[in-house]
User: What shape does this take?
Amino acid sequence: GAGVSQTPSNKVTEKGKYVELRCDPISGHTALYWYRQSLGQGPEFLIYFQGTGAADDSGLPNDRFFAVRPEGSVSTLKIQRTERGDSAVYLCASSLKSGVYGYTFGSGTRLTVV
Amino acid sequence: GENVEQHPSTLSVQEGDSAVIKCTYSDSASNYFPWYKQELGKRPQLIIDIRSNVGEKKDQRIAVTLNKTAKHFSLHITETQPEDSAVYFCAASIEGKLIFGQGTELSVKP
Assistant: This one.
């Protein structure tokens, strides 16, 4: 596609529920990144993929968070047993090659846990 | 790991004045430094970047400078306009990913 697409744009869920956030990167971009942005803060790194494999998942806050990219294109961020502190905008970005080019960000998914 | 500090957190200037935002980073292995502009409710957008083999880069009213020895880099916006009002983020690359600063909210008053 022309840009990075994220769905849904907004998600409201109850505490304790499971959610999935989807990212469709720019075609041909091999590197895909997930970030979390809380109000008034910079994007906080969660995980990045180079192709199908997670090259670095050091930013995932705990084992309730998991992400996959089974075919090297679309990625899904999965959050189990959601907590109110998980509320944030989850940003996905892609780049042609990791580490040496600027990212193109998606519009994000605003997750609200009530 | 890499740590990026950004100052100031807020900056207010009169239209036509210059604005400077500064960032420092901790890991000397970082070699790529982009700047992003984020308007309210929108995605961050890349506005300029610099690589470690270059000391300065300009694009119209925007320039970035890099001092690798001191591990700091700065964004300079000249002849500011109200549409420059936004939050600006610096970032540094390390081990394939970008680490972002905390952001600077720039307000340009007409």
Remarks:
- Chain B touches chain A through 26 residues (CB under 8 Å).
